[in-house]
């Protein structure tokens, strides 16, 4: 904090500055001269005349109304003229880079002091620490600045994620599903994880730590389109195509996205209208149609496109060029994600860009869905946890009717449900992740599609309850984009995204039941 902490004042000295002409206040043992600031104060000048405030200790009043970060902003930090004699600030706030939160339930159990987990090894813990430092240092500050402005993540952050020194290769493992061949020979995260050791728990750690950026649109702007757009290339592209495209993507020089959903159809891939027809010489596809809600589409160079072909449904990699245009779609979440409406107008694409078999697109897509939904679960439960942390802090520091909010049974009841939800979702997620680590990709598709679908639909339903309860706890601040409730407002506004991406809740839950029914032994009776 750029503040003057060298001078010391007794509380008696501070108390003498209690008029509009010389107005001091104490906040957490820090002495502020607000004489000139009072008329600029966003909360009005009158608050400084409230009983006990002029020349007095305003700590409790302050933290009931402001986030700690207010004191860290340079324009306010410079109002500090010293500290109270014989005292030191006690309140912890702001971001301590790399640190774990001490707030109960703000971290998953495996990161909570005194708890053990069978799932995480030393390399997961090291990765978590490195990711946390990285996110706190580079991603969180930019996310907080760019999300409200709708700006996409900067190239310098993407470059750091893709390569560079200590953080090499955060991007690579995010596409690591199925085959991990593309990790071979790489130094991941400065050597913290050996590529052959990298498993789904490492990937879970990367996804959950990135989620702490606290900006839903910005978080998706961190090339989450690649997480779903690149795997079909990695797993179904020809060696030549991969050799050309994959390094550009993983180095963050170029961007790829998945372009399946349309205004006409979402999960129903056979209802799509975008067509791909062969040229007479059979060497090219001509693609025509539109795609809607395409994450990262605005800044993508490559589009993994689902098309209707003569043989059914085929997935084709389209490069931005003649006939490809994108325009932004304004959604409830920030435009930092580059969500686009994409138009393909007679786009000529070499047949070598076909991913998988012609007419075999459904297999390409289905193989993507489980991993995609599992990543969404990693993200969703981590953002619910952020909401729990915000609520825990708020109910502790905010007073109503002369008592902290947590003294109200109705508030505690809401917290109980929020905590129970987040803990159970994380536990189920870890159980599924453990199964994924011990199954082939094919086995995962047949055994875990239902489990993952259930988890996601169950979790996002709960997420919406948590969002609504958090708004009730924060009151008006829960619907205000700045100040105390800013994360709650953001979460409540964007939570439905998680509930729709990768398949609507009812569709997913139904998928799980249908998969279970297919496995019913024919000879079972009551
Ligand atoms: C160094 C001292 C202070 C600074 C730098 C400061 C700064 C601010 C800022 C930046 C805001 C805008 C909201 C936000 O960004 O959180 C705000 C709002 C407010 N402040 Fe202060 N403030 C100070 C002291 C106080 C004190 C001592 C009180 C009460 C006794 C107070 C009462 C309020 C109120 C009522 C609001 C409006 C809150 C709302 O709309 O939710 N402020 N203040």
Automatic annotation (TrEMBL):
Region described as Disordered: 145-174
| Cited Gene3D superfamilies | Acyl-CoA dehydrogenase/oxidase, N-terminal domain, Butyryl-CoA Dehydrogenase, subunit A, domain 2, Butyryl-CoA Dehydrogenase, subunit A, domain 3, Cytochrome b5-like heme/steroid binding domain
One Gene Ontology cellular component term attached to this UniProt record is: cytoplasm
Cytochrome b5 heme-binding domain location: 6-85
Superkingdom of the source species: Eukaryota
- Entry GO MF terms: acyl-CoA dehydrogenase activity; flavin adenine dinucleotide binding
- Asked if the record carries the keyword Manganese, the reply is no
Swiss-Prot/TrEMBL GO biological process terms: fatty acid beta-oxidation using acyl-CoA dehydrogenase
Pfam families in the cross-refs = Acyl-CoA_dh_1, Acyl-CoA_dh_M, Acyl-CoA_dh_N, Cyt-b5
What InterPro entries is this protein classified in?
Answer: Acyl-CoA_dehydrogenase (IPR050741), Acyl-CoA_DH_CS (IPR006089), Acyl-CoA_Oxase/DH_mid-dom (IPR006091), Acyl-CoA_Oxase/DH_mid-dom_sf (IPR046373), AcylCo_DH-like_C (IPR036250), AcylCo_DH/oxidase_C (IPR009075), AcylCoA_DH/ox_N (IPR013786), AcylCoA_DH/ox_N_sf (IPR037069)
Instruction: Tell me which cofactor or cofactors this protein depends on.
Output: FAD
Keywords assigned by UniProt, alphabetized: FAD, Flavoprotein, Oxidoreductase
Family assignment from sequence similarity: Belongs to the acyl-CoA dehydrogenase family.
Provide the protein name. Cytochrome b5 heme-binding domain-containing protein
Protein species of origin = Pycnoporus cinnabarinus (Cinnabar-red polypore)
């Amino acid at each position: 904090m750029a503040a003057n902490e060298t001078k010391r004042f007794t509380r008696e000295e501070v108390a003498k500055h209690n008029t509009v002409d010389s107005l001091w206040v104490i906040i957490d043992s820090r002495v502020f001269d607000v004489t000139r600031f009072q008329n600029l104060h966003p909360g009005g000048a009158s608050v400084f005349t409230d009983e006990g405030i002029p020349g007095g200790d305003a700590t409790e009043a302050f933290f009931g109304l402001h986030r700690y970060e207010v004191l860290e902003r340079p324009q306010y930090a410079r109002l500090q003229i010293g500290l109270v004699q014989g005292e030191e600030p006690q309140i912890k706030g702001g971001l301590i880079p790399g640190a774990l939160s001490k707030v109960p339930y703000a971290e998953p159990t495996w990161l909570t002091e005194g708890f053990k987990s069978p799932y995480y090894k030393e390399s997961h813990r090291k990765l978590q620490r490195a990711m946390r430092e990285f996110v706190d240092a580079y991603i969180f500050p930019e996310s907080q600045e760019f999300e409200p402005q709708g700006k996409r993540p900067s190239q310098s952050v993407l470059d750091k994620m893709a390569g560079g020194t200590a953080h090499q290769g955060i991007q690579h493992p995010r596409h690591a599903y199925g085959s991990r061949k593309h990790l071979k020979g790489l130094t991941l995260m400065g050597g913290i994880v050996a590529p052959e050791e990298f498993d789904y728990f490492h990937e879970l750690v990367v996804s959950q730590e990135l989620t702490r950026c606290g900006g839903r649109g910005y978080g998706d702007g961190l090339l989450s389109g690649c997480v779903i757009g690149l795997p079909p290339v990695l797993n179904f592209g020809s060696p030549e195509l991969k050799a050309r495209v994959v390094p550009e993507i993983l180095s963050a020089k170029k961007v790829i996205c998945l372009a399946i959903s349309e205004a006409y159809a979402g999960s129903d891939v056979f209802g799509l209208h975008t067509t791909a027809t062969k040229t007479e010489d059979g060497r090219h596809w001509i693609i025509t149609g539109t795609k809607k809600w395409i994450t990262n589409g605005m800044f993508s160079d490559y589009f993994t496109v689902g098309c209707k072909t003569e043989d059914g449904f085929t997935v084709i990699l389209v490069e931005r060029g003649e006939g490809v245009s994108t325009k932004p779609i304004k959604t409830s979440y920030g435009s930092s994600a580059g969500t686009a409406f994409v138009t393909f107008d007679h786009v000529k694409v070499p047949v070598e860009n076909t991913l998988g078999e012609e007419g075999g697109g459904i297999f390409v897509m289905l193989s993507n869905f489980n991993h995609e939904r599992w990543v969404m679960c990693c993200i969703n439960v981590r953002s619910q946890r952020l909401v729990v942390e915000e609520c825990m802090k708020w109910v502790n520091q905010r007073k109503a009717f002369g008592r902290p909010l947590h003294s109200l049974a109705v508030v505690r009841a809401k917290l109980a449900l929020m905590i129970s939800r987040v803990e159970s979702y994380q536990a189920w997620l870890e159980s599924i992740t453990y199964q994924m680590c011990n199954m082939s990709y094919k086995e995962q598709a047949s055994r875990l599609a239902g489990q993952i679908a259930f988890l996601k639909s169950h979790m996002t339903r709960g997420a919406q309850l948590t969002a609504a309860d958090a708004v009730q706890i924060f009151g008006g601040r829960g619907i205000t984009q700045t100040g105390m409730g800013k994360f709650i407002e953001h979460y409540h506004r964007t939570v439905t995204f998680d509930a729709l991406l990768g398949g609507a809740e009812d569709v997913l839950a139904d998928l799980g039941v249908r998969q279970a029914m297919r496995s019913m032994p024919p000879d079972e009776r009551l």
